[in-house]
Design goal:
mainly alpha; 2 domains; 19 helices
Length: 406
């Protein structure tokens, strides 16, 4: 019963974004905006609200999330922590970098990999969904090179065949302390494809399309959503917060599925709370609400079902903020703002080793993520996942070294 309830509630939130998007602009403007989104490169940072408008961006994001939802349902995958995280991440990145058609080649590639290795696609469904981080591989080579649409699709499929085995192998590198493990793998995949194709004079460059005029409407949309999650979760949990504190007993490493640990009601409460923490950070530093920051908030919310909780994300965010005070980075600039939101994938470090090391991890992450994008030319949307994998690997190596010495 609770599984069906989870499916229905997740679907309601996808429809929530879809209906808002459809209501914001006339149909002709929606179609025009979606066309602009579908034909953009999607390379980091491509704010679809700037490119196509708020309505088309929300519609695109909602349908991208619905595609992930349908794939899970078709393959009879339960709506548990990783499923919820995948859907909300797809929804979020459907606002900057992924579109309805560009995600499909990556997923086809994972499907082909499962067939080549004689395994069920269901086993690789999360690399298929999260692996859509490489959607810009499709759109960039389709629209910005002589390879054209067929070439972009073929390269996207190739990227999909690589992402699943690579993500499985790289999980060992950070021992589950980077929640965006597929983003780590996508970084290496993007690095591989980008640098091979650079040899043939195909270059991509990171963009900076960053909206600053959408604050009021996006603030209302995301605050309404997070507060509703807390209220609905409270009701589902027999109108109480009983059992919620159990969330804090786990460091958050992969796999920490809160739907199994504390139940779906408490999981919804946690999702709403971690989302509010992200919102509070944006408000305190005076940041903007746009496609990328809303995508960051939705991803935090999604992983509130799968590893993140208030106690393990706050040190990471604080570490990034301290980094902006002690370096040349501005807290409200695009890179540092996204580092604070997406960098919470390092929450397991704070959860396992304590808040001080969590703050240090956030500080280091800011420095690494600010410069690694050049390695993949902005073709990996989960740039923070890539940087966090490197950060977590460094931490784990150092911690293991000290442990052995002690």
């Amino acid at each position: 019963m609770k599984k069906k309830l989870a499916e229905k509630i997740v679907l309601v939130y996808l429809i929530y974004f879809l209906l808002i998007g459809l209501s914001l602009q006339p149909i002709d403007e929606l179609i025009k905006g979606l066309y602009l989104i579908f034909t953009s490169t999607g390379v980091l940072i491509s704010d679809y609200m700037v490119i196509g408008g708020v309505g088309p961006a929300l519609v695109n994001g909602a349908i991208v999330g619905l595609i992930g939802y349908l794939i899970l349902r078709i393959n009879s995958v339960s709506m548990t922590g990783p499923s919820i995280a995948a859907i909300f991440t797809m929804l979020g990145f459907g606002l900057f970098g992924k579109n309805i058609w560009s995600i499909l080649p990556n997923m086809v590639g994972v499907y082909l990999y499962s067939k080549i290795t004689n395994q069920k696609f269901k086993k690789h469904i999360y690399p298929a969904l999260f692996g859509t981080a490489l959607a810009p591989v499709v759109t960039f080579y389709a629209f910005e090179t002589s390879l054209g649409l067929p070439g972009g699709i073929i390269i996207g499929i190739l990227a999909g065949t690589i992402i699943s085995p690579l993500s499985t192998y790289l999980l060992k590198a950070h021992e589950g302390h980077n929640l965006y493990n597929v983003g780590f793998a996508a970084g290496f995949t993007g690095l591989l494809l980008y640098n091979i194709l650079r040899s043939y004079n195909y270059f991509s460059e990171s963009l900076l399309l960053w909206g600053t005029e959408f604050d009021n409407i996006i603030r209302l949309i995301i605050i309404t959503m997070t507060l509703s999650m807390i209220v609905i979760g409270f009701i589902i949990n027999n109108k109480s917060f009983k059992g919620y504190k159990e969330t804090f007993k786990y460091p958050g490493t992969i796999i920490t599925d809160y739907t199994h640990i504390v139940g779906f009601g408490n999981t919804l409460i946690n999702m709403g709370l971690v989302g509010l923490i992200g919102i509070i950070y944006i408000e305190l530093v005076g940041g903007n609400y746009n496609g990328p920051t809303l995508g960051g908030l939705l991803t935090i919310v999604g992983f509130g079902s799968y590893g993140k909780n208030p106690l393990n994300i706050i040190p990471i965010i604080l570490g990034v903020f301290i980094g902006t005070l002690l370096t040349t980075h501005e807290a409200t600039a695009a890179g540092p703002m996204l580092a604070a939101l997406f960098g919470t994938c390092l929450a397991p470090i704070a959860g396992k080793f304590g808040p001080i090391l969590g703050i240090l991890a956030g500080f280091i992450h800011l420095s690494i993520v600010s410069y690694v994008g050049v390695l993949h030319g902005g073709l990996n949307l989960y740039n923070n996942g890539f940087a966090a994998g490197l950060t977590a690997k460094i931490f784990m190596a150092v911690m293991q070294g000290f442990k052995k010495e002690i």
